[in-house]
Amino acid sequence: MEGGIHTSTDTSAFKECLSLTWRNPYVLRLAFSAGIGGLLFGYDTGVISGALLYIRDDFKSVDRKTVLQESIVSMAVAGAIIGAAVGGWMNDRFGRRRVLLIADFLFFVGAVIMASAPGAALLIVGRIFVGLGVGMASMTSPLYISEASPAKIRGALVSTNGFLITGGQFLSYLINLAFTKAPGTWRWMVGVAGFPALLQFILMLLLPESPRWLYRKGREEAAKVILRKIYPAHEVEQEIQDLKESVEAEIKEEGSSEKMNIIKLLKTKAVRRGLTAGVGLQVFQQFVGINTVMYYSPTIVQLAGFASNRTALLLSLVTAGLNAFGSIVSIYFIDRTGRKKLLIISLTGVVVSLGVLSGVFHETTTHSPMVSRVETSHFSNITCPDYSSALNSGAWDWMTCLKASSPDCGFCSSPTNKLLPGACLISNDTVKDMCHKETRLWYTRGCPSKYGWLALIGLALYIIFFSPGMGSVPWIMNSEIYPLRFRGLCGGIAATANWISNLIVAQSFLSLKEAIGTSWTFLIFGVISVMALLFVIIYVPETKGLPIEEIEKMLEGRALHYKFWEKGNKPHEKSQAT
C-alpha cells in the first residue's frame, strides 16, 4: 500500500516528518512551496482586520457605513467562492501546478490594485482579484501536498498548509503593527501581500505537477519519476502498482479515464459519503465563528474596552500567534491522535470558549459606564446633539451614546477612572484629540470595562482549541477523502461551500452584533458548535494512516461510526493481511 505497512503510525509519524528534513528534503520542498498558497489565504484574512481600522480613518464613508466595511471584507470572500468553484474544475482539467500559478498571478494583481486604490470602490475591486486567487489556492495547495505525500505522514504534511495559513495571519498582524506609524499605513499593509504570491509563482515554476494527476492523464513515466523521488526504493513499486490498479478500476467503471458525470458522482456511495463529511466540515468550520474572530479581532478587542488601534492590533497579534501555535500542535497530533478525535476535542473546547465570551460580553454591556451631564458639560459646544435633546438623558450609558447617529457620537472617559461616568460628545478627530489631551480615553467602537482581560482570555482559549482541530482537519480531510477521478471537483465543491459560509458569516457579523449584541452573537456560534460536534461524531470517518486509494474502499463499506475512541481502520488492516 501507499507508504507501505505501518505498524506504529501513531507514535512515529511526527518524527518521520521531521526526519525528512535530511533524509528526503524533496518532499518538504513540495509541501512548503505549495503551502505558500495557505500563507496567502492566512495573510489576506488577517491583514484586512487591521487595515480596516485605518481605512475607516482615511475614507469617512467607510467609517459611517457598516455595509461598506462588510463589503471590503466580504468581496474577497465572494471572489474566493468563484475561485474555488472554478478552481475545482481547473484542477482536474489543467493540473494542480498550473492552477497555483494562476492563483499567484491574480493575488499579485489584486494586491497592487488595493495598495493604489483612491477610494472604496477600487479597493473592493482589488479585494475581488485577491479573493479569486485565494479561492483557487485554498483548495489546490492541500490537494497538491496530499497527492505528493506518503500515507504515514500525509496528515502532518498537509497540516503544514494549515500552519502556513495561521503563520500568514500572524505575519499580517506583525506587518499591520509595523506600519501603524508609517505614511500610507493600510496601503503598505495590503500591498506587502503581493510578495508571497510572487515567491510562490517562482517556486512553482521549478516544481513538477502532482504525480497522481499525471498518472491519471496517461503520463505514467513522468508520474513514476516523481514518485521515485518521494518514496523510498522499497515502497515506490508497490505505490505505483496501487495507483495503476486504482486508475484502471476507474476506467473500467466509467468507460473512459476522462469521463466525468455529476449524476454519476452523486450516485457513487464513496463520493456521496465523502462529500457529506467534507462539505459538512467546511461549512461548520466557518459557522463556529473562526473568521469572525480573525477578520474582526481588533474590533472585538476594542469592544472589550481597549481603546487605541495600536493596542487592539498588538493584542490581536497574540491571538494570531496562538493560532499559529495551534497549527504546530496539529502537525504533531494529526497522525498520532487521528482526525476525528482531534475534531471532537477541538469542538468541545470551542463550545466552552464561546460560552465564556458570551458571558463576558453580556457583563460588559450590562455594566457599562454611564454618561455624566457634569463631564459632558465640561466640553463646551461639542455635546452629542441626541444626548442634549433626550428626555431620558439620565439613563444614557456608553452604549446609548455610541448608538447616536445624527451625527455620530463618541464616549470620552473620566480622567480618573475609565469605569466612572464620562462624556458623550460629537465624534470627530478634533474632539478625539481634545479628549486625549486631558489624559482621557476615547471610545467609538468599544466599551470601558473591567472585564476586558476576560474577553481576551476567552478569545485565546477559542483559538487554542479551534486551531489544531477545526482549523486544520477540514482541509486535510478534503484533500484525501475523495476518489482520484473526482478529487479536484469534489475538493472544489467543498472549498466553495467553505467560502460561501465564510461570506455569510463575514457579511452578517457586524449587522448581527448591532441587532442583538455581541453576547448573543457568540451564543449563537456556541449553539452551532454543539451541532458541529454531533455531526463529527456521526458522519466523519477516521482516515489516519490510510492510503488515499484505501480510503475509497473504506467509505464504500462504512456504516455510521459513533464510537470514535475505538480504532476502526479495518479496510487498512484487511489490506495489510492480504
Folded structure, characterized:
Helix 6 crosses helix 23 (473-480). With 578 residues, this protein is mainly alpha-helical. It folds into two domains: 15-254 and 291-362 and 453-557, MFS general substrate transporter like domains (Growth Hormone, Chain: A), CATH 1.20.1250.20; 369-448, no CATH class. 74% of the residues lie in helices and 2% in strands. Strands 2-1-3 form a three-stranded antiparallel beta sheet. The chain is built from 27 helices and three strands.
Could you give the topology of this structure?
Layout: H1 9-23, H2 25-58, H3 60-64, H4 66-94, H5 96-115, H6 120-147, H7 154-178, H8 186-191, H9 194-205, H10 211-216, H11 220-230, H12 233-254, H13 262-267, H14 269-287, H15 290-303, H16 309-333, H17 339-366, H18 373-377, H19 385-389, H20 398-403, E1 409-412, E2 423-426, H21 429-437, E3 442-443, H22 452-471, H23 473-480, H24 487-516, H25 518-539, H26 548-556, H27 570-577
Antiparallel strand pairs: 1-2, 1-3
Helix pairs in contact: 1-2, 2-6, 2-7, 2-9, 2-15, 4-5, 4-6, 4-24, 5-6, 5-9, 6-7, 6-23, 6-24, 7-16, 7-23, 11-12, 14-23, 14-24, 14-25, 14-26, 15-16, 15-22, 16-22, 17-22, 17-25, 24-25, 26-27
